[in-house]
Specification:
This protein is α/β, with parallel strands linked by helices. It has one domain: 3-Layer(aba) Sandwich (Rossmann fold), CATH 3.40.50. The chain is 34% helix and 23% strand. The protein has an eight-stranded mixed sheet, with helices on both faces. β2, α4 and β3 form a beta-alpha-beta unit. The two termini are 23 Å apart. The relative contact order is 0.17. The model has no long low-confidence stretch (mean pLDDT 83).
């Protein structure tokens, strides 16, 4: 599995979609209308940076539904609602089985935000799944292992590791690529 290392301006990224996502969305040089409010949520600089990345992703993808997996985070929900008004949000605290969970997570206009690991051991991804997952806190051992398994999975087409944040894109039109962005 080849991992392409890049920076905030998108050097070494040959995919036009990923280049635009990195250079024009994640690291756009202009401030968004909600950034001042996001900065008031917390004094922790790392959290502010992560919330801004999540805001930009929700604003870019404009999902119809967001599923929040794991611990509830009301600030995160507020960030998402700043990016898209009237968004349907669902909380899922735990799963009976991974197969059941991943069937819930499919959908072209779905965005899934994983707040923690939820004790996932084995998993199967529904073939043909589409959507975007944002995985928080990927520096933790268990969720890092989960993210690494996703990177190797045949149905996961694009992964982007961005500090403590992982972005997973399921879309059959892309070739498999894994990126690490330093910022």
């Amino acid at each position: 599995m080849k991992v392409i290392k890049s920076n905030r301006i998108g050097s070494r990224i040959h995919s036009p979609f990923v280049y635009r996502l990195v250079a024009n969305v994640l690291f756009a040089g202009y401030p968004y209308y909600a950034f001042q409010e996001i900065e008031e949520f917390t004094d922790k600089k790392d959290e502010v940076v992560e919330y801004k990345f999540i805001f930009r992703l929700v604003n870019y993808f404009q999902p119809e539904v967001i599923q929040y997996i794991g611990n509830e985070d009301n600030r995160l929900k507020r960030v998402c609602s700043l990016a898209k008004k009237n968004i349907a949000g669902y909380d899922i605290q735990s799963f009976d089985s991974e197969e059941k969970a991943l069937q819930l997570l499919g959908g072209k206009n779905h965005l899934v935000i994983w707040n923690n690991y939820c004790k996932i051991k084995n998993f199967r991804i529904t073939p043909g799944i589409q959507g975007v997952w944002i995985i928080r806190n990927i520096k933790g051992h268990a969720i890092k292992d989960f993210f690494n398994k996703l990177m190797k999975h045949q149905d996961v087409k694009i992964t982007i590791r961005l500090g403590h944040l992982g972005i997973v894109i399921f879309n059959g039109q892309f070739q498999k690529q894994n990126y690490v962005i330093k910022y």
